[in-house]
Design goal:
With 114 residues, the chain is an all-beta fold. It is built from no helices and ten strands. A hairpin with an 8-residue loop joins strand 1 (2-5) and strand 2 (14-15). It starts with a strand and ends with a strand.
Length: 114
């Protein structure tokens, strides 16, 4: 996973590898430490790359804790339809999925197929 500011083609400011967990319903928590702490308001692009020709990642949620460890937002991606991913942190920061992402029914409700 690569995290980019303001453009899907911008240089990533944080990255983290994604590996096989053994199943779509087996989630792991991974941390991506940012090389720099972004300042101001930006659009965040999370991009994924793989040499595999099939879907290779299932994102359950994203959360951001900037210094001093204050939760900025939490998105579960569990809405049944539409492009919005609602923020459950209480900060009302709705994320908008790009056209390539689709909603998909899973074993535990809904998710986003990337």
């Amino acid at each position: 996973m690569e995290f980019r500011l303001d453009s899907a083609t911008a240089p990533p400011f944080a990255t983290t590898p994604v590996s096989d967990t053994g199943g779509w319903d087996r989630y792991v928590t991974v941390d991506a430490a940012a090389a720099t702490t972004p300042v101001g308001v930006h659009k965040l692009y999370v991009t994924f790359a793989s040499a595999q020709p099939w879907e290779f990642v299932n994102v359950k949620w994203l959360a951001f804790d900037p210094p001093p460890r204050r939760l900025v937002g939490r998105w579960a991606f569990d809405e049944a339809d539409g492009p919005a991913a609602l923020d459950s942190s209480g900060h009302d920061r709705t994320a908008v999925l790009q056209p390539r992402a689709t909603r998909a029914a899973g074993r535990l409700g809904y998710g986003s197929a990337l």
